[in-house]
Amino acid sequence: MKLKDITNIIEKWSPLQQAETFDNVGLLVGNPNSNVEKALITIDTTETVIDEAIKNKCDLIVTFHPIIFSELKQVTENTYVERVVKKAIKNNINIYAIHTNLDNNPKGVNYKISEILSLKNTSILLKKDNKDIGMGMIGDLSKELNELEFFEFLKHKMDVKYIKHSPFLGKKIKKIAVLGGSGSFAINEAINQKADCYVTSDLKYHDYFKAEKKILLADIGHYESEHFTKQLILDFFIKKIPKFACIISKTNTNPVNYF
Question: Is pLDDT above 90 for 130?
Fold first, then answer.
């Protein structure tokens, strides 16, 4: 298939204009008129992922996080970004990023999280421009859980080992707000919408004070909050382009390790 035909289908699903202004989505490396036969789906594009694409004869990488985020002034081998771009070009591998436009998709990243957690009565947490798109989701568990029960449930469903959290409040957990990736900016909205717990990542020290004994904040890790996005993208390809070969990357690109 022509790459531009594939990207047109993706962009009908998650239009580029739905991305945040700071983001860098779309075709980052490659030629829209090139023929592509197989895609590798990943959260991040690292050198190991490029090697995986080469090994599996993939000529397209669909990545969630853009490998080129800020201005790229040179392509040498001084940084991992430059090495990835250089190696992709050398091996005729196209790289396409779908990031905050998928975050803002009502059936996107946060819908997938709410689906994993089996949330009911879901709605968008932070609507964008008063439209039915936006960041985060909020919904209800099928039954109330105490805080420890919910954290065990959360660890199991999201496949995480550790949860950083604000102080327990001794309250039942029923209404859950979720936002994959860095979500400190939505703490107040989660409180305003009466969420019992807000599940997100990348909370800083002072963010935990914003709980104000009104909500339980749960930081499950950035990669951990988004890793189901690979399956989300694969499911889309299977539905919309069933004859186009796609595989999920087996590379764990999480740069955070725990001792």
Answer: no
Percent with pLDDT over 90 in the chain? 97
Cα separation, 217 vs 223, in Å, equals 17
58 CB neighbour count, 10 Å cutoff: 25
Q: Where are the domains of the chain?
A: 3-100, 104-225
DSSP, collapsed to helix, strand or coil, labels residue 5 as: helix
**Chain mean pLDDT for the chain:** 97
- Give pTM, 2 decimals: 0.95
Question: Which residues, in sequence order, are CB contacts of 100 under 8 Å at separation 6+?
Answer: 18, 19, 20, 23, 25
Match domain 3-100 to its CATH number in 3.20.20.70, 3.30.70.260, 3.40.1390.30, 3.20.20.80.
3.40.1390.30
Q: Which two tokens stand for residue 214?
A: 């009104």
d(CA 17, CA 25): 9
CATH number of 104-225: 3.40.1390.30
Is it true that 3-100 and 104-225 share their CATH fold? Answer: yes
Residues 6 or more apart from 46 whose CB is under 8 A from it?
80, 84, 251, 253
Over the stretch 42-52, which tens digit does the pLDDT of each residue have? 999 999 999 99
On whether the CB atoms of residues 67 and 84 are closer than 8 A, the answer is: yes
